[in-house]
Every structure is written in C-alpha cells, then in structure tokens.
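Budget justification aside, the reviewers requested a transparent look at the raw inputs and outputs of the sequence design task funded under Objective 1. We therefore reproduce one unedited record. The lines immediately below are the structure tokens for a 183-residue chain.
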C-alpha cells in the first residue's frame, strides 16, 4: 500500500513538473487562408457618423495578411466614403490589428484595428484625419461583431482540444498559432 502511494505521489510531482515546464504544451495553427475564408463570408458593412455627416461603406470583405507587421495582422480594404452629403468616393485603406480570443464564443476576433493609410483622389488632405477616424471606427465595429475564426465543436480533434485547453495565441507570418496546455 505504501509503495502504491509513493508511486502515485511521485507521478503527481513529475506531472506537475512536466506541466509547469511547458513540456505538455501543444501548438496548433490556423492559416491565413482559413482566416480569409471566414472574413469573406462576413461581407460588408455601412455606418453613419455625426448625424449623416460621414457615411462609410465597406462594400466587400477586407483582405487580411498575418504577421505583417510582426505580431499583427494587416488589413487592406476598399471602401466608399461620403463626407458632408457629397457623393461617395472610393478609398483604399491599409491598417493593422491585433487578435483576441473570446472563450465564451470560442472564436477569434481582430482587435483594435487602426487605419494607418487612407488614399483617395476624392478626399482632401484636410479631410483625411476625419476620414481615417471614421474608417477606424467602422473597422472596430466590423471586427467586434464578426469573428475571423471559430473553433467548431464538430471540428478536428485539434479544434475540439483548443476549445478547452487554449492558453495563448500569437500571430506569425501567414498563420495564427494557438498554444494548448492542460495547466
């Protein structure tokens, strides 16, 4: 009986050491193509700001590139923006975003997007800061409500494990890495 207890205690201590050393961690990856396919399903969005003074419309889903810049996602989109009741003009936007995991939804979302570059022949230099702010707000609303990847209950064994064991995530070039660990 003492031998069994001793073996059990030794096994528990060894397991705790292995877990704390990160030896039981496993990484799974979601590709940029997986993320883009989900974003493409989300479609567009339109928002009005300042009682209709600015209307921003995302006609089609943005293009996502992972790991550009390092640890971030870059977002490229073509929008239409209308300032002060003028006709809408096309705008090309380049931005960056982080990534977050919502454990309740078992889904990944782009977080804190920022429009870094706004280019349009129809927007004056003076109006660019206002347009950039409105576009950033639209991107924030868009990505807050539309996950870029959802861990499915009926998915692969890795996805099922990730639903319960996900400990951290990071963006790498071309993919998202999720670290799974029982501790």
């Amino acid at each position: 009986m003492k031998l069994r207890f001793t073996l059990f205690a030794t096994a528990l201590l060894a397991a705790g050491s292995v877990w704390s050393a990160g030896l039981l961690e496993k990484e799974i990856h979601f590709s940029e193509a997986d993320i883009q396919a989900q974003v493409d399903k989300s479609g567009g969005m339109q928002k009005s700001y300042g009682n209709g003074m600015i209307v921003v419309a995302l006609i089609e889903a943005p293009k996502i590139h992972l790991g550009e810049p390092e640890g971030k996602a870059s977002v490229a989109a073509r929008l239409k923006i209308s300032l002060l009741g003028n006709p809408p003009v096309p705008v090309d936007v380049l931005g960056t975003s982080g990534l977050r995991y919502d454990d309740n939804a078992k889904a990944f979302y782009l977080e804190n997007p920022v429009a870094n570059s706004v280019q349009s022949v129809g927007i004056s230099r003076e109006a660019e800061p206002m347009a950039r702010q409105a576009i950033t707000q639209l991107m924030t609303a868009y990505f807050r409500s539309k996950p870029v990847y959802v861990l499915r209950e009926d998915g692969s064994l890795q996805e099922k494990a990730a639903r319960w064991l996900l400990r951290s995530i990071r963006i790498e070039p071309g993919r998202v890495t999720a670290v799974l660990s029982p501790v």
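The chain has a mean pLDDT of 83. The beta strands are 26-31, 45-49, 54-58, 63-66, 73-83, 89-102, 107-119, 149-150, 166-172, 175-180. Computational costs for records of this kind are itemized in the attached budget.
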